[in-house]
Design brief:
Length: about 150
């Protein structure tokens, strides 16, 4: 289903990105509409797949996850069986917040959030025991300068 978005839809999406926990009344007030039309637009965008899962963002450091690693992976394996095993291993590990397959010299990049370097090593050892990789480079983030889930609507 293709949905054409107008300015009101974009305003609603911006409000939801800013705080999905706010009430329909508040969103309607912010976008200059009333509650029922806003709800209908949200439902339409949800049905079209524009709006996905609603969630809350947690403060990783406040919960003790102080280390963020960006893990660059090169592999010499490109068969479907290897890829399936690799993707399964990633999906089963809650430490992996993001995983991307790349074009270029690096095959995959992972964003891994753990409590400390020792926890990263346990993650690394478990991963390489399940799937063969050619090269792994782990980069420790010293400071998070910007992090957002908001799209530039």
């Amino acid at each position: 289903m293709t949905v054409r978005l107008d300015d009101t839809d974009r305003k609603i999406l911006s409000q939801l990105q800013r705080d999905a926990g706010q009430s329909l009344d508040e969103i309607a007030r912010q976008v200059g509409s009333s509650k029922t039309p806003v709800w209908n637009r949200i439902r339409k965008m949800r049905d079209a797949g524009i709006i996905g899962q609603q969630t809350f963002l947690l403060d990783a450091e406040a919960l003790g996850f102080e280390a963020c690693f960006f893990v660059l992976i090169r592999t010499s394996e490109h068969e479907a069986d290897w890829q399936a095993a690799f993707l399964k291993a990633l999906k089963e590990r809650p430490e992996v917040q993001e995983a991307h397959r790349l074009a270029g010299d690096i095959d995959y990049i992972l964003k891994v959030r753990v409590k400390n370097a020792r926890a990263y090593d346990a993650f690394y050892q478990a991963l390489i025991s399940e799937v063969k990789v050619h090269n792994v480079t782990a980069l420790l983030s010293m400071e998070e300068i910007k992090s957002t889930t908001m799209l530039p609507l």
